[in-house]
Write a structure and sequence with these properties.
About 40% of the residues lie in helices and about 20% in strands. By secondary structure, it is α+β, with helices and mostly antiparallel strands.
Length: about 425
């Protein structure tokens, strides 16, 4: 019995204040509730009825309710339609059940005035989680098992085995319910519990304890690497962007964690690699709920592809608004060629005699080419955009001026040699882009 007492991690629990115990009615949660109460903690209980086992689910709820009423333990019950939630949210049944359960527990803790929520995850759950994550493929974090603390969720039983909980209940004549689905091997966790864990215990009878110690050591390594990644972000992050060059210069263990911290998501290895490839090569990549793209040396998290420019005729003279680009064109006719070229390429001067038909402003078209004035070569717009450092997601939102023969200018890049006004020209169209 002393082994059970020493294995309950009371360091996770507040010295004062109420503790909400998540009680399913099974042996582990009944052990948690009764053991904490025995240790003198102010406990209350909450039970969530997932409605997945019909009458058996209602039986478990009634059992926990009756037990708490008999023992004068404050109690709340909740229930939800897990299958409907899973279908609507496109989750597995297990994911939906977990989401609904924890949402209820948070609400119950508020209602009952609990400082923390204690769950009955035990040493077996921890070892099984490590093995399941390993089987599915994981990094260091997945091998850390179940976190002892997450928000106000605490798990003080990660060093207690299921058998120790059963022994305690038997010694103290505490009833509990058995979930018949725990015996069914259709669930992956049950197969690991019934087959993999016994096989490993045949190699080391203390496998679950060893797995728990390993998880604790790995958590220390994970915390250090995450701290280093956070320090990296503190140096190279600006708002929702990050230095691409600096990120690519980091070891993968730091870079991958920096990416996850930037997104606030537990991204898969594939998604992390896609982001790092974007940092190296440029372009844009989609990850869950977010688009990441490189602009110059900045890796931007949360880019929004530019709205394509809708075709419209340029008013000559006059003003032409391009609301989707946040720009407007001011067009004038002048008689003297400006003595210099605007290096920002927001002002263009064209020789009217070389313009073929009307001037239109559009988005770029596939196959667009231009011979920029003074460059001595003809290039695809894609090449010109790349050379100018325009990220791919912005290119459809860059105004392109064209006449009946093709492209005559691109905002931010330059004008075509065949139409650019030169000293001595007298019939000139001047177009200036201004911000709306």
């Amino acid at each position: 019995m002393s082994a059970i007492v020493t294995r309950m991690n009371t360091d996770l629990l507040p010295r004062s204040g109420r503790i909400l115990c998540a009680v399913s009615g099974g042996a582990d949660s009944m052990y948690l509730l009764c053991r904490l109460r025995e240790l003198g903690y102010d406990v209350c209980a909450a039970h969530y009825n997932h409605g997945l086992r019909g009458a058996a689910s209602d039986r478990d709820e009634a059992f926990v309710r009756d037990f708490c009423e008999k023992e004068h333990i404050p109690f709340l019950a909740g229930r939800g339609d897990v299958r409907v939630c899973a279908e609507e949210q496109r989750m597995s049944i297990e994911e939906a059940a977990r989401a609904l359960r924890y949402e209820f527990l948070e609400q119950a803790a508020d209602e009952l005035g609990a400082a923390v929520i204690a769950t009955a995850h035990n040493a077996g759950d921890n070892g099984e989680t490590m093995l399941l994550n390993l089987a599915r493929g994981t990094g260091l974090k997945g091998l850390c098992g179940i976190p002892p603390v997450r928000g106000r969720i605490v798990r003080p039983m990660l060093d207690v085995t299921h058998q120790q909980a059963l022994d305690y209940l038997a010694a103290h004549d505490v009833p509990h319910m058995e979930d018949e689905t725990n015996r069914e091997d259709q669930y992956a966790r049950n197969r690991v519990r019934h087959r993999a864990v016994p096989a490993l215990e045949s190699v080391n009878p203390s496998f679950l304890r060893a797995a728990g110690q390993t998880a604790a050591l790995l958590r220390q390594d994970e915390e250090l690497l995450t701290t280093l990644a956070a320090e990296f972000l503190a140096q190279y992050r600006e708002g929702n962007s990050l230095s691409a060059q600096a990120l690519c210069g980091q070891p993968f263990s730091i870079a991958s964690r920096a990416v996850r911290l930037m997104t606030g998501q537990e991204l898969s290895y594939v998604h992390v690699q896609a982001v790092l490839k974007t940092a190296r090569d440029g372009g844009m990549t989609d990850i869950p709920g977010l688009t990441v793209g490189r602009e110059g040396d900045r890796l931007v998290f949360g880019v929004e592809p530019a709205a394509p420019i809708q075709p419209r005729a340029v008013s000559i003279p006059g003003r032409t608004d391009i609301a989707e680009a946040g720009l407007a064109l001011i067009c004038k006719k002048i008689t003297d060629c400006p003595p210099f070229v605007h290096k920002s390429f927001n002002i263009f001067s064209f020789n009217c005699e070389n313009i073929c038909g009307n001037i239109m402003v559009t988005a770029r078209h596939p196959g667009d080419r231009m011979r920029p004035a003074g460059r001595g070569c003809t290039k695809d717009l894609k090449q010109l955009f790349q050379e100018a450092g325009f990220p791919s997601w912005r290119r459809q939102g860059v105004p392109v001026l064209r006449d009946g023969q093709g492209v005559i200018a691109v905002y931010g890049i330059g004008s075509a040699e065949r139409v650019t006004a030169r000293p001595g020209d007298k019939n000139i169209i001047k177009i200036e882009f201004i911000r709306l």
